[in-house]
Write a structure and sequence with these properties.
The chain is of the alpha+beta class. It has 18 helices and 21 strands. A six-stranded mixed sheet has the order 14-18-13-17-15-16, sandwiched between helices. The protein has a four-stranded mixed sheet with strand order 1-10-9-8, with helices on one face.
Length: 530
């Protein structure tokens, strides 16, 4: 059976990817003040403090209210926020921040004492994303109300990105949190006090949350909107219908079903933008096992994998084929000259010959080997990918056994027992290779913990280069280290980069400004509506 026939039940209209209509659009015209903006979320948030959780409904709510010292820009580097400027010592150990003149929603001044408290007492203790940065901090000082000094034990390249609210470093009012349990403090749950562009107004559980304009916001003339309403709609299909009916103005990609993207693109009342921290779909090999411990076998299997077909049919031509081990959207770390689809082009005859050379010759029945591909059964796209793989590899004598199990079972089997041959997974880059990519390849991440180096791959030179990228503070120098990593991984191939996830954010045509951004949460003060 052909791959096309195998996927016939899943066929859908093909729509544009990164390079076409889904690119971040530029808005023309003068921003208008006033109006209400309705955002859809899937459930009642259990918290609005982004330092305590990475859950999307909670982070969405908190992003209107709380802010970090920095925020993530379009190229996934850190830009100013509550820290208006900073200097870094030559050895990369001392960061000196000058703070913006901002006020909390209760009218009190935001000061360096708040920043010191937030990082030491909340982010470092409760922020899962901030944990790595916290381990590098030697001391935090607040010499005057507008100056914060962070001293590290060793240089840490992602430090500025870690100081974003997305990174688990939301600034919190010391006068409200000090001496309390941050987990149960009302300012974390339903009575938040932040510095952000919007303030809590009311919360009708199970239906909506209303936020009102912060008239004393520290960015002069902003926000433009008078009101933001977070509409709670649990069902994905119902969320789409609400958008098409004009009852909702905006959906973050997390809340909008990929299966309905083509429908949204065809609706003249909706607009689409592709933007988020890059996430990648990959195939990970257990290199502890024969024959997957042989790079020549892994290279041959890549030649036998039609990555373009997966992107076009499984993912409806959304996103991009991932051409090397660094996502192309992390442009400063990505070497465009390394293209695995050119280095190992899809060619079943060449793949078969390479397997012959590696000693995996077919038996009398034409079979070379049988192996299992494990994945989360709840992700139907993974099942479709597995069908393509079974078809491709079956044509050269490889039998793929599909090991689709519930997520909890998959986590146990793959990440804790290492009982797999290959596995299909999604790994977020977290906007920086040091945060989201290194964990796939460095030797010290070979631990029985979810979403670390489960392949067992270990290469001292790769470890050294990732350590360089982690330690340097200059973006260009860090990028050079990661490009060298890509060249090595292109030979070793412990992981098959497969698909750069399409993050399709949807809004009605009345919405303007930066409503789709790098981490999905950063620029609400710039949004305006007709």
């Amino acid at each position: 059976m052909s791959a096309a026939a195998a996927l016939a039940p899943y066929a859908a209209p093909l729509i544009s990817g990164h390079a076409e209509a889904l690119a971040q659009a530029s808005d023309e015209g003068t921003p208008k003040s006033g109006g209400s903006f309705v955002v859809v979320i899937s459930a009642d948030p259990s918290s609005c403090n982004t330092s305590l959780t990475t859950s999307v409904p909670e982070s969405t709510l908190g992003s209107f209210i709380y802010e970090g010292l920095t925020r993530i820009e379009s190229d996934f580097t850190a830009g100013p926020n509550l820290a208006s400027s900073w200097t870094i010592s030559d050895d990369g150990l001392v960061y000196t921040f000058k703070l913006a003149k901002a006020k909390w929603h209760d009218g009190k001044d935001f000061t360096s004492a708040d920043a010191k408290y937030s990082l030491e007492e909340v982010s470092a203790k409760y922020g899962s994303r901030f944990k790595a940065a916290a381990s590098k901090i030697k001391s935090i000082e607040a010499p005057d109300p507008e100056t914060l000094v962070i001293t590290l034990t060793s240089s840490y390249g992602p430090m500025l990105v870690s100081l974003t609210a997305y990174g688990g470093a939301a600034m919190l009012p010391k006068h409200i949190f000090e001496g309390t349990d941050p987990l149960s403090n009302p300012a974390s749950i339903d009575k938040p006090v932040g510095t952000g562009p919007f303030k809590m107004k009311d919360w009708a559980h199970g239906d909506h949350i209303t936020l009102e304009k912060n008239k004393d916001y520290w960015r002069e003339g902003k926000p433009y909107l008078d009101e933001v309403i977070l509409k709670i709609i649990p069902d994905g299909g119902t969320r789409v219908l609400a958008m098409k009916a004009g009852e909702v103005d905006y959906s973050y990609f997390y809340f909008f079903p990929v299966s309905r993207v083509a429908e949204a693109k065809a609706d003249p009342n909706l607009q689409l933008r592709e933007k988020a921290l890059p996430e990648d779909k990959i195939i990970i090999w257990n290199v502890r096992k024969e024959p997957f411990n042989n790079p020549k076998v892994r290279q041959a299997l890549y030649r036998a994998t039609n990555m373009t077909y997966i992107q076009q049919v499984v993912y409806q031509k959304l996103g991009k084929v991932m051409v090397n081990h660094m996502d192309s959207r992390l442009g400063w770390a990505h070497d465009a000259s390394i293209d695995l689809t050119e280095k190992y082009p899809f060619d079943l005859k060449a793949a078969a010959a390479a397997l012959d050379e590696a000693g995996l010759k077919p038996d009398a029945n034409g079979q070379r080997m049988t192996f299992r591909m494990a994945f989360d059964s709840a992700d139907t796209d993974y099942g479709r990918i597995a069908q393509v793989l079974a078809n491709n590899w079956g044509q050269i004598g490889i039998k793929l056994v599909i090991d689709a199990v519930p997520r909890a079972v998959m986590i146990e089997r793959v990440f804790k027992d290492w009982d797999f041959d290959g596995t299909i997974q999604a790994y977020s880059t977290s906007g920086d290779p040091a945060l989201g990519v290194a964990r796939l390849y460095v030797s010290d991440a070979i631990v029985k913990t979810p979403f670390r180096n489960v392949s067992g791959y270990s290469n001292p030179e790769v470890d050294k280069l990732f350590a360089e990228g982690l330690a340097k503070t200059d973006t260009k120098a860090r990028g050079e280290a990661y490009k060298k990593v890509s060249a090595i991984l292109a030979e070793d191939m412990p992981v098959f980069p497969m698909w750069e996830t399409a993050a399709i954010n949807v809004a009605t045509t009345r919405v303007h400004g930066r409503w789709a951004w790098s981490d999905g949460y950063s620029f609400w003060e710039d949004v305006w509506v007709d």
